[in-house]
Amino acid sequence: MAKKQQYSGTCFFCNQEFSKRGMGKHLQACKARKASMEKLDQKKKKVFYQLVAEDAYSRYYWLHLEMEGNTSLEKLDSYLRSIWLECCHHLSDFLEPGRGGSEIPMNKKISSVFSPGMYLTHIYDWGTSSETNIRCTGIRKGAAMTRHPVLLMARNNMPEHICVECKKPAPFFCWECIREFGAWEPLCETCVKDHECFEDRQPGEIVNSPRMGMCGYDGPAEPPY
Ligand SMILES: [Zn+2]
Ligand SMILES: [Zn+2]
Ligand SMILES: [Zn+2]
Ligand SMILES: [Zn+2]
Questions:
Q1: Is pLDDT above 70 for 6?
Q2: pLDDT tens, 106-143?
Q3: Closest CA to 66 of 29, 33, 105, 106
Q4: Is pLDDT above 60 for 2?
Q5: Contact 109/72 with Cβ under 8 angstroms?
Q6: Which ligand is nearest the CA of 189, by number?
Q7: In this structure, is residue 198 part of a structural domain?
Q8: pLDDT at residue 59 in the model
Q9: Which tens digits make up the pLDDT trace of 152-161?
Q10: Are residues 146 and 170 in the same domain?
Q11: Is residue 224 part of a domain?
């Protein structure tokens, strides 16, 4: 698979695919998104924040989210845990940009920490850390498009992993190879059967999350709603 495609993702209003770079622009123009906004009762005006969450180290993983301004950061934290991060209930924090930034309390409202162009960092697990950058790309005034605290507007497509032995698509990886040698070893259906490490621990299943292979993370990397 070409590099360009690996960074691409899907718009959940129209189900079309766009490049990572093009998705923000697309969401502004998406006809299906506009149509579903027009159906809403626009008298119920609230302020919504468009946020892009991106793994700090692996550029394959990104989410376009929308949240109402009165929602607390805690709701964003639980969303990130559900879709990407949760392994064993580690501590997490929002920080002013960068790992050394000062902590932002979880009860802060989205409207009090974000404005367009502003970003912050989310850390999940201070041991084997997952680090997510969250950037505000715009705001909208109008009615809610979901009754949930977070609306998932777009997401990266599942990156394709290739078997280290035979180059076929790989749905599995080896935990032991990571633990022993720090090696990311994707394996296909066939080669996973011959892999030598699997006496103690079953192979891991590859999912659409930047936390794969870290601590005890084993998915499912599905949105909570
Ligand atoms: Zn669209
Ligand atoms: Zn863990
Ligand atoms: Zn193979
Ligand atoms: Zn192995």
A1: no
A2: 999 999 999 999 999 999 999 999 999 999 999 999 99
A3: 33
A4: no
A5: yes
A6: 3
A7: yes
A8: 86
A9: 999 999 999 9
A10: no
A11: no
Ligand having the closest approach to the CA of 128: 2
The single-letter code of the amino acid at 20 is K
What's the 212 CA to ligand 4 centre distance in angstroms? 15
Tell me which of 120, 139, 156 is where a domain ends. 156
Stated pTM of the model: 0.93
Residue 42: the pLDDT is: 75
- Ligand 4 centre distance from Cα of residue 209 (Å): 20
68: in domain: yes
How far does residue 199's CA lie from ligand 4's centre (Å)?
A: 10
List of residues 6+ apart from 108 with CB closer than 8 A: 72, 73, 94
Task: Say whether both 27 and 136 belong to one domain.
Answer: yes
Specify the DSSP class assigned to residue 4: H
pLDDT of residue 3: 45
**Ligand approaching nearest to the C-alpha of 85:** 2
Q: Structural domain of residue 201, as residue ranges? A: 161-217
Residue 105 burial class via C-beta count within 10 angstroms: exposed 0-12, middle 13-18, buried 19 and up: exposed
Q: Do 33 and 105 have their domain in common?
A: yes
What spacing in Å lies between the alpha carbon of 186 and ligand 4's midpoint? 9
